[in-house]
Amino acid sequence: MFKKILIANRGEIACRVIKTARRMGIATVAVYSDADRNAMHVEMADEAVHIGPPPANQSYLMADRIIEACKQTGAEAVHPGYGFLSERASFCEALEKEGIIFIGPKVKAIEAMGDKITSKKIAAEAGVSTVPGHMGLIDDEAHAAKIAAEIGYPVMIKASAGGGGKGMRIAWNDAEAREGFARSKSEAASSFGDDRIFIEKFVEEPRHIEIQLIADSHGNAIYLGERECSIQRRNQKVVEEAPSPFLDAATRKAMGEQSVALAQAVDYQSAGTVEFIVDKHRNFYFLEMNTRLQVEHPVTELITGVDLVEQMIRVAAGEALSFSQDDVKLNGWAVESRLYAEDPYRGFLPSIGRLTRYRPPQEGTEGDIKIRNDTGVSEGSEISMFYDPMIAKLCTHAPTRLEAVDAMADALDRFEVEGIGHNLPFLSALMQHPRWREGRLSTGFIAEEYPEGFGPVPPSAQVVERFAIAALVVSHILGERNALISGARFSQAEKRAHEEKVVRVSGHEIHGRIEDAGEGYRIKLEGRQAMQVETGWMPGDKIALITVDGDTQAIKVEPAQAGWRLRQLGVDVRVQVLSPRVAELARLMPEKKKADTSNLLLCPMPGLIVSIAVNEGDEVQEGQTLAIVEAMKMENVLKAERKGVVSRIPVKAGDSLAVDEVIMEFAK
């Protein structure tokens, strides 16, 4: 077994590998760029080596610097994590020349499966069901449109060396095929250094289901069940679960056996994943094979009890698998939510900045529920524009799917993140969505259910009542606290506590009373029986655990102007607790109008201006491309919402802009 390994990665996956290596008694070496000098993975590792500036192509993608770090520290092997150099055959070859072990598959498998065009040919020869498509290289935009039309729309345009949703576009007509080809080619070149593109038929109403493999160098290969990865946004997975709520035993077995056949066809060794598109009739088609550890591997670990990182290390060290296919049992259900630094209220655009507050729910097992949080940040960490926006992967495991989903909803409500825009509200709302809870999924779920994007979640009647109770309790506790201030004029505090209050929640007005009742409080809302309420909340706490007649709920609590900001299940509202007279006067207050920005094109996220497509004085048409902004390795095309004339462009290509900074102005 190795004595020391180097992790050629950063963030949560580097921390994840370090945890297993530490448990196995293996020393670890971290590498870091200038931007990650104080990162968690650097602190966790036994040693750390600086490898360059923040851009990945000047640090984490520099194979020679990784190898030099191995020589400098005496690391015997390299675990690549995912992304960066994890599927680059040249890196594997370079390590081999230096006598350093690559903790992953051999060069042959990486080359065969890393190229999507080649991999589909091999899959077809191995008897794996494949999607109709054009496996040859594509010359230009016109060629792309011609091929797409021959296959039949809709089609998927994909980077041959792609992954993580980069370099992928769906086209429904010739125009979209041309533009999608250009954008995919550009993204592929900047993200992977390989701009080859291919096109295949897009399966409508598809599910994205993948099979986890583990294989050794002794001819053993097994599959560890499947993962459902259909909840995606812009081809990027957001929520995963294992097993799939859709597959039956026969389909699972067929997919698993075909995956093993493919692995054996390329002499695969290590952990790997075979991805399939599955239609509503459970017909499945090979999509690609990822010759690395997947982001979503924790859900498989939770239902099988197999540590995939440990198995990768043991296989790389030459050990044979210690278990067989018959030993693999799927126990319970696991759900993973990816916490991204993306603002759901702004079209999920990237958000950067410092985590002024980061308090994940407590990990561990309580009863039948297990909570796991894979992360690479802590409070005070900076979310940089240079890397992937994922902050953490929150996982729950329970005996049944709905129990795991409910556990996830509760864990998300207990997750505190402040300082940046993030997708916690969306994830929380998703856990309550009827279609998600029923398991009626497809890769188009988010686009279909949120066609206008994600917006403020209107509270249900139950949530309105729950927020009214919470507001009464926290206001009462704060009032009692203020009454203890020496010299303050709170002599009538106790009397006022028993007076009727009006709670204003999202346009609703709820009348109620609260009074102390031994261990807790007694609350009476208009039209309802009195309730026993208990809480340990104190002023300053960000989360209130409030128990109403035995049912405990976690609610985020934050003081706001003339009231409170309460958040739960994706609902985010301002709540006020007023006297009847003040409530009467509040109804007369006018609402402040928002500033008119209709004649401005604002930068939707912090990013880099790649190009400006128009000039001052130009007349633009609705849908015309105005500018391209790059953020977190993704190119975002900004288009005109309506016809107009460009009057001013205060920026140029190459400028770095903050969110809402003006890109161009139009004549009114």
Condensed summary:
The protein is α+β, with helices and mostly antiparallel strands. It is globular.
Q: Give the neighbour order of strands across the main sheet.
A: 14-13-10-11-12-15-23-21-20
Counting helices, strands and paired strands, the structural category is alpha+beta
Q: Give the helix proportion (percent range).
A: 25-40%
Q: Gap between N and C termini, in Å?
A: 70 Å
Mean pLDDT: 92
Rounded to an integer, what's the Rg over CA atoms? 27 Å
Shape: globular
In percent, how much strand structure appears in the residues?
25-35%
Helical element count? Answer: 18
How many runs of DSSP E, i.e. beta strands?
A: 40
Extract low-pLDDT stretches.
Answer: 491-495
Q: Characterize the biggest β-sheet.
A: 9 strands, antiparallel
Blueprint of the fold:
Elements: E1 4-7, H1 11-23, E2 27-33, H2 40-44, E3 47-52, H3 63-73, E4 77-79, H4 89-97, E5 101-102, H5 107-114, H6 116-125, E6 133-134, H7 141-151, E7 155-163, E8 166-171, H8 174-192, E9 197-201, E10 207-215, E11 221-233, E12 236-242, H9 249-265, E13 270-278, E14 284-290, H10 297-304, H11 308-316, E15 333-340, E16 342-343, E17 349-350, E18 353-354, E19 357-359, E20 364-366, E21 369-375, E22 382-383, E23 390-398, H12 401-413, E24 416-418, H13 424-430, H14 434-438, H15 445-449, H16 461-483, H17 493-497, E25 501-505, E26 508-517, E27 520-525, E28 531-535, E29 543-548, E30 551-560, E31 563-568, E32 571-578, H18 580-586, E33 600-602, E34 607-612, E35 619-620, E36 625-631, E37 634-639, E38 644-648, E39 656-657, E40 662-666
Parallel strand pairs: 1-2, 1-4, 2-3, 4-5
Antiparallel strand pairs: 6-9, 7-8, 7-9, 10-11, 10-13, 11-12, 12-15, 13-14, 15-23, 16-17, 18-22, 19-24, 20-21, 21-23, 25-26, 25-32, 26-27, 27-28, 28-29, 29-30, 30-31, 31-32, 33-40, 34-36, 34-39, 35-38, 36-37, 38-40
